């Protein structure tokens, strides 16, 4: 299995989903070798983790040059705007990019030290990771290859060519989710290449499955939807006490176009017009963060609006424990694990209809992401009608407790068996 990140070192839901799925597969009797660009040593010991940064390749072997020739279309000068802030993008653009010879020599080192981050050199790391995959695939015993999201598709394809074993790719998001219609062509090309090379595709929802079929030209019978799940809370949430008397409404996710943070801000403004005894929290980072800070200041609500930065691990549990409502106004959300995390913490949720998780949740308020009035009404209703809030908390907690990674592991194992 090839991934780009693994807990506790994550930047979002991808690493969380990989961890949950691997645990679900282990419970179904599937042995997993998880390859990650950079391991830190504090990952779980429940499965074998290969640190790509420790893998040494022998450059005298023609196999590496053969596979490099197939990857040369990846453009090192391509910056991934969805993962960079405006300042980071401008800084990256002012730095020199590799010419062809420098790029070639920098790739053909005997070992690579991966950052595992979303930096300006991410395309270089994707290409290097694919070369490491050739080495790993030639030395490991396995039945099937599983690659998570576009960053690892070239690695999955290379492993398939080296070993002859079937390839399953897992689509957690597409470039259309991240960027709308203004896609990064390099990323789209890698996604399409991976989808067509795969023997089977796992999508995190039927919403995503349809995008794969319509936008990438994939046969419907090749794509299976398997819903994500959430780990149960293993701590006492009552130990977290909020230091303010007001109700708290939370947005937690990347502050990017995909997640709809601007709709959250506008809805907050509408709610605060009729009730000042509410605080709004935006937890996360991303390229729209500065714009959101400026908009909050312009609207004059900065005394009731807090920017918490990126949260992970126990900080997420603490944030939800202090929240009275959670809002996910995503423009295009393949699934969305954070509403499940909120519901397991007894927080009622408001989610966009344009999300995969809306397919599986009954006890959540569902709105169109663009309908600011509906978002504001839902927030006001949950905070002012106690019976409504209690109902969503009780039934929502029961509902999310039944979404188990073990069940997702069963479905994915069935996909493995269909190609082996």
Helical amount among residues, as a percent range?
40-55%
Beta-strand percent range: 5-15%
Distance between the termini: 15 Å
Going by CATH, the homologous superfamily of the largest domain would be Glycogen Phosphorylase B
Brief sketch in words of this structure:
The chain is an alpha/beta fold.
Polypeptide structure, described:
With 420 residues, the chain is of the alpha/beta class. It folds into two domains: 13-229 and 407-419, Glycogen Phosphorylase B (Rossmann fold); 237-401, Glycogen Phosphorylase B (Rossmann fold, 3-Layer(aba) Sandwich). The protein has 16 helices and twelve strands. It has a six-stranded parallel sheet, with helices on both faces. Helix 13 (338-344) links the parallel strand 10 (325-328) and strand 11 (349-352). Helix 6 (153-163) runs parallel beside helix 8, helix 10 (261-274) packs parallel to helix 11 (289-299) and helix 10 packs across helix 14. The longest helix has 18 residues, at 122-139.
Write the layout of secondary structure elements.
Elements: H1 13-27, E1 33-36, E2 48-51, H2 62-69, H3 86-94, H4 100-107, H5 122-139, E3 145-148, H6 153-163, E4 167-171, H7 175-179, H8 185-197, E5 200-203, H9 206-216, E6 223-225, E7 247-252, H10 261-274, E8 278-283, H11 289-299, E9 305-307, H12 314-321, E10 325-328, H13 338-344, E11 349-352, E12 365-367, H14 372-384, H15 386-401, H16 405-419
Parallel strand pairs: 1-2, 3-4, 4-5, 5-6, 7-8, 7-10, 8-9, 10-11, 11-12
């Amino acid at each position: 299995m090839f991934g780009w990140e693994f807990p506790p070192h994550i930047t979002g839901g991808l690493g969380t989903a990989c961890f949950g799925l691997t645990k679900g597969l282990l419970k179904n009797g599937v042995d997993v070798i998880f390859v990650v660009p950079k391991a830190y040593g504090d990952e779980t010991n429940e499965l074998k983790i290969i640190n790509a940064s420790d893998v040494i390749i022998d450059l005298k072997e023609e196999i590496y040059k053969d596979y490099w020739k197939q990857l040369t279309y990846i453009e090192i000068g391509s910056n991934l705007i969805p993962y960079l802030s405006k300042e980071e993008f401008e800084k990256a653009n002012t730095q020199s990019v590799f010419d062809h010879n420098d790029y070639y020599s920098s790739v053909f080192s005997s070992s690579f030290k991966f950052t595992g981050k979303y930096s300006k050199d991410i395309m270089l790391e994707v290409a290097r990771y694919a070369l490491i995959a050739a080495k790993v695939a030639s030395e490991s015993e396995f039945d099937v290859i599983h690659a998570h999201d576009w960053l690892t598709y070239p690695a999955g394809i290379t492993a398939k060519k080296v070993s002859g074993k079937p390839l399953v790719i897992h689509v957690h998001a597409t470039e259309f989710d991240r960027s709308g219609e203004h896609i990064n062509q390099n990323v789209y090309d890698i996604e399409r290449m991976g989808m067509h090379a795969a023997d089977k595709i796992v999508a995190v929802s039927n919403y995503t499955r349809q995008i794969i079929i319509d936008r990438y030209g994939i046969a419907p019978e090749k794509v299976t939807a398997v819903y994500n799940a959430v780990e149960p809370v293993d701590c006492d949430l009552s130990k977290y006490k909020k230091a303010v008397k007001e109700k708290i409404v939370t947005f937690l996710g990347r502050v990017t176009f995909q997640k709809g943070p601007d709709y959250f801000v506008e809805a907050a403004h509408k709610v605060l017009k009729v009730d000042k005894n509410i605080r709004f929290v935006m937890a996360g980072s991303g390229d729209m963060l500065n714009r959101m800070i400026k908009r909050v200041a312009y609207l004059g609500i900065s005394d009731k609006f807090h920017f918490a930065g990126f949260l992970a691990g126990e900080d997420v549990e603490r944030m939800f424990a202090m929240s009275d409502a959670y809002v996910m106004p995503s423009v295009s959300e393949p699934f969305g694990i954070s509403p499940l995390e909120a519901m397991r913490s007894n927080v009622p949720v408001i989610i966009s209809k344009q999300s995969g998780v809306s397919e599986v949740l009954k006890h959540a308020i569902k709105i169109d992401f663009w309908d600011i009035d509906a978002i504001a009404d839902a927030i006001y209703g949950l905070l002012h009608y106690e019976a409504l809030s209690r109902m969503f908390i009780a039934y929502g907690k029961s509902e999310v407790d039944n979404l188990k990674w073990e069940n997702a592991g069963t479905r994915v194992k069935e996909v493995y068996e269909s190609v082996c």
